Amino acid sequence: MTTSIANSFEEGVPPVTPPKNAYPVLSQIWVLVGVFILAQIPAAIPMIGLKAAADSYGLPFLDTIGQTLAYALGMMLTIWYAFRQRGSRALSFASVPIPAYLVSAVGLIAMGVLAEPIVSAIPMPDAVEELIRKTFTKNVILSAVIAAPILEEILFRGIILDGFLKNYRPTKAIIWSALIFGFIHFIPAQALNAAFIGIAFGWLYYRTRSLTLCMFLHFVNNGLSSLTFLSDEGLNMSENTTREWMGSDVYYVALLVGCAVVCVVCYRLLDRILPNAQAV
Questions:
Q1: What is the pLDDT of residue 79?
Q2: Model pTM?
Q3: What is the pLDDT of residue 139?
Q4: Half-sphere exposure of 15 (CA within 13 A, CB side)
């Protein structure tokens, strides 16, 4: 190597340096997670102020605005840091055939039903359940359904997964990005569910390089989850509500089998509809 560099200089040709890894690599992720956690401190300032104003003047919409601003500010600070580290703000919004949106949404819903028995098996302390019930109200709908699909997809698929796909094999990149996506949700049941979703979204991004598709599906997932949660004040995340709604184990097993078939069919359809994985 030393000889080749010397020869290059002797011939008037600059030496070729090894390519730098794209941002991020796994060793850089924990710093990014730390930035995300620290970003919640300044992000909480407008939430606290608007919460006080909402209570003082009886204007609950100020609380909604405050919580949305807090979430968005924390995410945007993290994204800003990631862009700085990456040295580029480029994001991929490749076009996707319209049928892929419908097929992906159907598959996502079926996958959610299949994941529910696993997610609901994770014990949830009563204190955590009560905290979620008090926190997840109509005031957070705006951030959960609108802001989260946009900002989380930019960070986790547009930056983290996109960088991983440049540094690692697709399977490793998708699984690690999904695990990180799950970890950042903190609450075990939510984290596991987010990891499952992260694998699905990761595969779709790998095949399409389309943040638009991922944002749409994230909107569908969070929208349906919000409607379900808010429609039942007594909903317990550690309970299998679908099984209770079915009223019979036989019907529930049939539903699970049907959802498994739907997932397989959707996967095969998407494999035909979507373009081949793009080189990075």
A1: 98
A2: 0.86
A3: 67
A4: 11
Name the residue among 160, 198, 164 with its Cα closest to residue 182: 198
Assigned domain for 280 exists: no
The dihedral of CA 251, 236, 55, 74: what is its sign?
negative
Q: Which domain holds residue 106?
A: 2-273
Asked whether residue 212 is domain-assigned, the answer is yes
Q: How far apart are CA 155 and CA 147, in angstroms?
A: 12
In a domain, 243, yes or no: yes
Domain total for the chain? 1
Taking each helix axis from N to C terminus, what angle separates 26-57 and 60-86, rounded to the nearest 10 degrees? 160
| pLDDT tens digits along 68-89 | 899 999 999 999 999 999 999 9
Instruction: Please give the Cα distance from 213 to 177 (Å, whole number).
Output: 17
Residue 236 lies in a domain: yes
> How far lies 222's CA from each of 106, 118, 208, 228, 232, in Å?
14, 19, 22, 10, 16
Give the C-alpha separation, 148 to 221, whole Å: 11
Residue 211, Cβ density class (10 Å: 0-12 exposed, 13-18 middle, ≥19 buried) = buried
Q: Answer for the pair 194, 182: CB distance below 8 angstroms, yes or no.
A: yes
Answer whether 103's CB lies under 8 Å from 271's CB.
no
- pLDDT digit string (tens) for 158-212? 999 999 999 999 999 999 999 999 999 877 778 899 999 999 999 999 999 999 9
pLDDT at 26 over 50: yes
User: What separation in angstroms does the CA of 179 have from each of 151, 186, 193, 224?
Assistant: 18, 11, 10, 22
Confidence of residue 242 (pLDDT cuts 50, 70, 90): confident
Q: Are 89 and 25 in contact (CB under 8 A)?
A: no
